[in-house]
Amino acid sequence: MTTKSNKTYNIAIIGGGPAGMMAGGRAGELGASVVLLEKNKSLGIKLLMTGNGRCNITNKIEDNRKLVEKYGSNGKFLFSAFNKFGVEELIEFFESRGVETKIEPGNRVLPVSNKAKDVLDALIKYLKDSGVNIKTDSEVKEIIKKANPATGGRSRIEKIILASGEEIIADKYVICTGGKSYPESGSSGDGYRWLKKLGHEIIEPLPALVPIIVKDKFVKDLEGVSLKNVSILLYKDSKKIDSQIGEAIFTANGMSGPVILNMSRIIAKNLPGKLKLRIDFYPQLDFAKLDRKIQEDFKVDSNKLFKNFLDKLLQPKLAVVILKLSGIDPGKQINLVTKEGRKKLIHLLKEFDLEIYGLAGFEKAMVTSGGVKLSEVDPKTMKSKLIDNLYLAGEVLDIDGPTGGFNLQVCWSTGYVVGESAKKSI
Q1: Which of 33, 129, 131, 205 shows the greatest Cβ crowding within 10 Å of its Cβ?
Q2: Cis status of the peptide bond prior to 272, with omega within 30 of 0
Q3: Is a pLDDT exceeding 80 seen at residue 20?
Q4: Pairing assessment for the beta strands 155-162 and 101-104 based on DSSP bridges
């Protein structure tokens, strides 16, 4: 049994994440009657999980040209949105609503409180102050479209049918359901399915900003070892395709951490294939300088056992693995280590190779790569070029950036643009 809504809204928004809340708040603020539909029992569940609960809301890059470069070849799509509501406007938005911010290394912007809940509370208050009708526990079952003779037969959405049977009718509709990452938050990729049915082309969704799984079994012995200021190179078929310097961490079956998460975006686009990581634990020293350093250290500790010497160069767990891989007798005195043995050690410190098996799944991914093909969306309004009264925002679009607040900025900016443009077109 279906029950019609007792009112028709100007705008109906599907998805109560950052993009949906920003779109709803802005449209309501401008005077539109808005309903925000969220299938979970509360809004912003995924937002509360970002930044390990601290919520890295954006990245303090003031030049929009440099900012869009962070998103790769699709970044230019965001120029208009960033010019309308960029990093500075976003920070001012939250600070004017009582969320004081701070800048941490890497230009990451977070709330001073380190609480994602403060960000969510500010957004919910924004929605309520803007008169938005918030409907949680409202799962969308079907989106009904029909041909619109006024636009030469191009389709428009007629109504939304909820799992409860209730029908939601509006002049304009917004889909900002996110991707498939953090499935425990309710992200199931429903938006892709609906949009494909509506006629949009979907670039295959892949997990992004996700840990890497390697074939080398010895990484189990390195679980929990953190690396700082290391250089990590990515090779495909012996050709270098990426390199980054920063922080990483070994997991039970591979690696994670900022450098690895960012590299995972490139890895996803190059699988299947023969891929490997090469870690340089001493990027500040070339082979010759590192060799001289180790020779000098050998002289100082000439009577030490080799197994005890490695603790000066590496963390204990890593020292044990390097020791095994070097093939040098751990009980040998340093002054008895051969030149070949020393060269093998230097090679492991500068070229520690791991063969990539693949990526962890969406359950470990921070964002989704892929989504609605950008050429089917107007970048100035975020309006669908295929469906007359449909707008899109956030992660459902085929655009993703590195870790550090970049992906949330896409949600804020595109959501804000949708709120404004959908209201103006009414």
Answers
A1: 205
A2: yes
A3: yes
A4: unpaired
The count of residues in the chain is 426
Q: How many CA atoms lie within 13 A of 40 on its CB side?
A: 16
- What would the pLDDT profile of 159-199 be if each residue is shown by its tens digit? 999 999 999 999 999 999 998 876 666 667 889 999 999 99
Q: Per-residue pLDDT averaged across 331-350, rounded? A: 88
pTM: 0.90
CATH 3.40.50.620 corresponds to the domain 3-206+370-424: no
What is the band of 153 on the pLDDT scale with cuts at 50, 70, 90? Answer: low
Structure tokens at 151: 């636009």
Q: What percent of the chain has pLDDT over 90?
A: 75
Which tokens hold the place of 276?
A: 């490997």
How far is residue 54's CA from residue 325's CA, in Å, rounded to a whole number? 39
Give the C-alpha separation, 162 to 369, whole Å.
28
Delimit the domains of the chain by residue range. 3-206+370-424, 211-360
